[in-house]
Amino acid sequence: MEDVLRPLIVIGGSLTVTLLAGWGLDRLLRGIDTRHPETPLWGLLRRGRLPFQLLLCTAVLRGSYERADLFRAHHAAIARVLSLVVIGATAWLVVRIATAIVESSYSRYANAARDPARLRRVRTQVTLIQRVVTAVVGVVAVAAMLLTFPEMRTVGTSMLASAGVLGIVAGIAAQSTLGNLFAGLQIAFGDMVRIGDTVVVDGEWGTVEEITLTFLTVRTWDERRITMPVSYFTSKPFENWSRGGAQMTGTVFFQLDHAAPIEKMREKFHEMLQESPSWDGRGWGLVVTDTTPTTIQVRALVTARDADALWNVRCEMRERMVGWLREEHPYALPRVATTPAPGAPEDGERRRRPGVEGPSGD
To answer: Kind of pairing, strands 279-291 and 296-304?
Structure first.
């Protein structure tokens, strides 16, 4: 009877202590969060309740099962399993706490920040810091788990002697990966590109959606995702339309007839711009920039608050101006001449240059 009750008491007591401690910690954090609404830290720390309970329960079992003299034949195996769970739960809890602290700091900064570009920069850095912390904690936890096995300790001692050679080989083999890793850190803290920036890469323009330590994802205007190594942005030129501010200037070109009413176009263009919600009012213009034997090239200049608004106002102005010209000044649109110009000889009439005789019989 004692052999049955003792395991039940130990396991049941461990679960009871774990549940009570988790409930008490959650109530404490909830109360602090209510008293301090200016920071989300305490609310975010509540996410660590599950790993905390797992760590506490495993630690209590690890310290009590031997004293209770349970499972004598399997002490070594149980101790190893519980040790592995303790290490894993500790790593899980550390990651949750670190994530809560980082997210809380970013949230407080975002509420006080007024510069969108700087806010995107901090967001990029925060994201990469979270990934670095998670990777470091994971590597340390795995290493600690492996060291719980006596066989791995022996192998580890022998491997230290050849660590230099292995390091060189690993460095050569992982040259591309390490290059992307350092490029990711350079992007994060060098402020080259940030999450939310509008960029143009390989002729495609889109918004930076995700940045990791090894790759970067760009979401294009048609909702495609372009994934490329972060080393691309440290080794090749690219356009960052959000650098120094999101405001942009764009152009709209028209190919028109030489008789196009430029002054009336200029007035109408400004009138249409004032009606457009995408125009930010910073600047505009309409001038003739080039001529050909058959047409003239008219360039309209517009400004907008960001790349999306610029695209909208360019398309809107192009569509409305062409419609206005078609209805009010159709002669201004390009035409193909199919009739003789005024004063030209009629069809079939032959002209003879002075001093040149015509063919026999004329």
So the answer is: antiparallel
Q: Are residues 132 and 15 part of one domain?
A: yes
Q: Write b or e for each residue in 159-191: b if 16 or more Cβ atoms lie within 10 A of its Cβ, otherwise e.
A: eeeeeeeeeeeeeeeeeeeebbbebbeebbeee
Residue that terminates a domain, selected from 161, 189, 205: 161
Q: Where are the beta strands (DSSP E) in the chain?
A: 198-201, 204-211, 215-220, 225-229, 239-240, 248-256, 279-291, 296-304
Give the Cα separation of 257 and 331 in Å (integer): 7
pLDDT tens series, the chain, 362 aa = 455 566 666 677 777 877 888 788 888 878 887 787 777 777 778 888 888 888 888 888 777 766 555 556 566 777 788 888 888 888 888 888 888 888 887 787 777 666 666 677 677 777 777 877 888 888 888 888 877 777 666 655 554 444 454 455 445 444 555 565 666 666 666 667 778 888 888 878 888 888 777 778 888 878 888 888 877 777 777 888 777 666 888 899 999 999 899 999 999 999 999 998 889 888 899 999 999 888 999 999 999 888 788 889 999 999 999 999 999 999 988 876 666 656 545 544 444 444 444 444 44
DSSP bridge partners of 302: 250, 284
136 with 227, same domain: the answer is: no
Asked whether residue 258 is domain-assigned, the answer is yes
**339 is a domain residue:** no
DSSP 221-257: TTS-EEEEETTHHHHS--EETTTT-S-EEEEEEEEE-
The burial class, CB within 10 Å (0-12 / 13-18 / 19+), for 112 is exposed
- Report yes or no on 219 lying in a domain: yes
* Domain that residue 225 falls in: 179-240
For residue 89, give the nearest of 126, 48, 119, 31 by alpha carbon. Answer: 48
Same domain, 83 and 46: yes
**Same domain for 13 and 157?**
yes
Supply the CATH number for residue 201's domain: 2.30.30.60
Number of domains in the chain: 3
Same domain, 236 and 256: no
